[in-house]
Amino acid sequence: MNPMVITAAMVGAETTREQTPYLPISAEEIAEDAAKCREAGAAMVHLHVRTPDGKPSQDTELFRAAIRAIRAKCDILVQVSTGGAVGMSVDERCGGLKLTGADRPDMATLTTGTVNFGPDVFWNPRPLVRDIATRIKQLGLKPEIECFDVGMIDEARALAKEGFIDLPAHFDFVLGVGGALSADERALDFMRSYLPENSTWTCAAVGRHQLPFVELVAERGGNSRVGLEDNIYLSKGVLAKGNFELVADAARRAKAKGRVLATPQQARELLRLG
Asked: How far apart are CA 250 and CA 6, in angstroms?
C-alpha cells in the first residue's frame, strides 16, 4: 500500500474554546500545534482561521499570518478551507484563495453539493461550486473534493466534464455529520468503490468515529483526517490536549495496521500536487 497521508483538521468553524481550551486560535498557536502534528506523523493541515476572539473567519490576512507561521516552523503541507462557516458569502469563503507567491497554500477544499449540517444547511448550489472551482483552478491548485454524501462524487464527475476540475482527483469522505451520510463501514466501502478511476481518497469521520475509522481506512489503503475540527476527545471524556495528540493516536493505529506514514513530500506526490 502507499504511505498514508494524515491530515490534521486543526481549527474548523464550529469547535469553541468553551468546548475545549486546547483549540488553537492565533497564528502562533496554530503553528505550534502544526509543528507538533508534523512530528507526530501528519503530512498536511486542513486550515480554517479565527478572529482573536475566536469567531470563525476566512480573512485573507489571517490565513496569511497562519501560513507564514506554520511554514516558519515546519514543512507540513497547508490545505485551506473554502467552506468557511455556515452563512458566509462565496467571497468570504474564498479568502484563502487570494494568497499568491510564497504565501499560496498547497491545496484547497471544494465541497460539491448542499447538505444538512446539524440544524443548519451547508449551502453549495451548483453555480457557487463552479465559482469556487474556477478560483481554485486559476490559482493553480488541486482541489480536495469534500463529499458529505455520495451524490457529491457524481457532481465531481460533472465538474470534470465541464472542465472545472481534472480527473483523477483527490476526495475526502466526511462521514457522521448530523443530517448527512453516517459514519458507517458500508458507506465508506461504497464511496471508495464509486470513485473515478485512479482517484485518491481520505476519510474524515466525525466525533467518536474519528479514531476508530483510522483503522478501517488503514486496512483499505486510504488516508485519514483527524483533528479538533471534527472531534475533541482522545477517548471517552478525555479531551485531546491539541491536534497533535489526535495525530499521534491516528499514527499509532495506522502503523498497527501495517501502514507507513507519508512525509509532506510523499503526500505531494501521492496527491499529485505538483
From this structure: 8
